């Protein structure tokens, strides 16, 4: 877990691990799958390579610290720009293949409160689609960060991890169906 999330994992209980996993699954579904497909469809292989390079640089250096301040800032802003449309399409996809009303309501009411302009819509809609609560406080670099609540319903359980993966699978089938119809 500590290799795939940026939060401190030593103090996580079972629910914290579950919440971190679902948040990562939903956000990485957008970044690694749907945005990559979007850029490939829009700009071919060069678009896909540019997107994945930018996304990888943001993941490696997009943190605000003295070492990567300027380069990390540029990578993070370019990644935000390239994900603007794909993140919203992903959020809409999660809503369409999950609990639509809760997903759209969560997206509309909660996404703007999240610190990332693209992760907010994706995770709020995903949490709503699954009818679970994500967000809340987490430890980052020795500090507690009080994060907004995303979604609605119950706190996630370990079973909801599989439901999150299944949500992404259904969204991918939806995208493939639309792509085939468009050809």
From TrEMBL:
Q: What is this protein called?
A: Cobalamin biosynthesis protein CobD
Q: What is its main location?
A: membrane
Q: Which pathway is recorded for this entry?
A: Cofactor biosynthesis; adenosylcobalamin biosynthesis
- Please list every transmembrane segment annotated in the UniProt record, as residue ranges: 32-51
This chain is encoded by the gene named cobD
Function of the protein: Converts cobyric acid to cobinamide by the addition of aminopropanol on the F carboxylic group.
Q: How does it sit in the membrane?
A: Multi-pass membrane protein
Can the keyword Transit peptide be found in this entry's annotation? no
**Ranges in a coiled coil:** none
Provide the family line: Belongs to the CobD/CbiB family.
Q: Name one Pfam family in it.
A: CobD_Cbib
């Amino acid at each position: 877990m500590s290799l795939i999330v940026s939060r401190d994992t030593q103090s996580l209980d079972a629910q914290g691990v579950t919440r971190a996993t679902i948040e990562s699954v939903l956000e990485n579904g957008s970044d690694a799958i749907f945005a990559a497909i979007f850029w490939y469809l829009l700009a071919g292989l060069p678009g896909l390579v540019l997107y994945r390079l930018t996304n990888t640089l943001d993941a490696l250096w997009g943190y605000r610290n003295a070492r990567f301040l300027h380069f990390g800032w540029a990578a993070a802003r370019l990644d935000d720009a390239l994900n603007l449309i794909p993140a919203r399409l992903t959020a809409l996809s999660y809503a369409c293949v999950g609990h639509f009303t809760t997903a759209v309501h969560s997206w509309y009411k909660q996404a703007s409160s999240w610190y990332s302009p693209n992760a907010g819509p994706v995770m709020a809609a995903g949490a709503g689609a699954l009818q679970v609560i994500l967000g809340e406080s987490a430890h980052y670099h020795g500090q507690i960060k009080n994060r907004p609540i995303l979604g609605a319903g119950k706190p996630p359980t370990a079973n909801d991890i599989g439901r999150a993966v299944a949500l992404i699978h259904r969204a991918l089938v939806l995208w493939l169906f639309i792509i085939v119809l468009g050809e």
